[in-house]
Amino acid sequence: MTRNRADCSAGFTMLEALVVMAVLGTLAALSAPSLMALREKHQMQSQGELFLSSLQLARSQALQRQKRVMVCLRDAGDVCTSQGSWAQGWVVFVDDNGNAVLDGQEQRLQVQGPAPAFLRMTGNTPVRRYVSYGPEGRSQSVSGALLFGTLRLCKPGQSAAWELVINAVGKPRLEAVLLSAAEAEAC
Q1: What's the CA gap between 175 and 152, in Å, rounded?
Q2: Which of 138, 65, 75 is nearest to 102 (CA)?
Q3: Which of 55, 115, 144, 154 is deepest in the core (most CB within 10 A)?
């Protein structure tokens, strides 16, 4: 028996192609929310790592220069402010005169812009507005007292978060934490 070429075609019919496209579209739609959550999780970790590296820069520069180096909340003009949260960004600068204010002649070492809109970055009372390192590399308040605290990076409603902990000698560390339902809602 002889077959002609038209009987042996190996292509897809239009109906088969449409069914495959519909299945792929459905799978993509189902995976989109989980991909968005994964993206936000990685952005949160990345922002925590950025802040950690800024604190490490401030600490090392304080030791190297033997001067106070500050990390403060950033205002729109890349100056320090006492209003808002760490999510609006921060400035690392050499505080030559020790007044905890970024004066015109003082050197900015780093300026970090705002965090993604979903992210909350809040510090407890000691580190709500600034972190300061003295000439010995220890964290200290403007008055010279010990300065240690915790900054939390979280998204409201999510239990997974990051905390940046600054110990009594000023060494920062970043750690993943799970929040209770009440903490997640209060984030």
Answers
A1: 10
A2: 75
A3: 55
State the Rg of the chain over Cα: 26
Given this model, what pLDDT does residue 3 score?
54
Q: How far apart are CA 31 and CA 9, in angstroms?
A: 35
* 53 backbone dihedrals φ, ψ, rounded to 5°: -65, -35
Rounded to 5°, the CA angle 59-63-71 comes to 30
The structural domains of the chain, ordered by start, are 37-186 (3.55.40.10)
E strands of 59-134, at which residues?
Answer: 69-73, 90-94, 108-112, 120-123, 130-133
Burial of 130 (0-12, 13-18, 19+ CB in 10 A): buried
- In a 13 Å sphere around the CA of 33, the CA atoms on its Cβ side amount to 2
> According to the model, what pLDDT value does residue 56 have?
98
pLDDT tens digits for range 111-129: 999 999 999 999 999 999 9
Q: Sorting pLDDT into bands at 50, 70 and 90, what band is 15?
A: confident
Report the alpha-carbon angle 43-47-50, nearest 5.
140
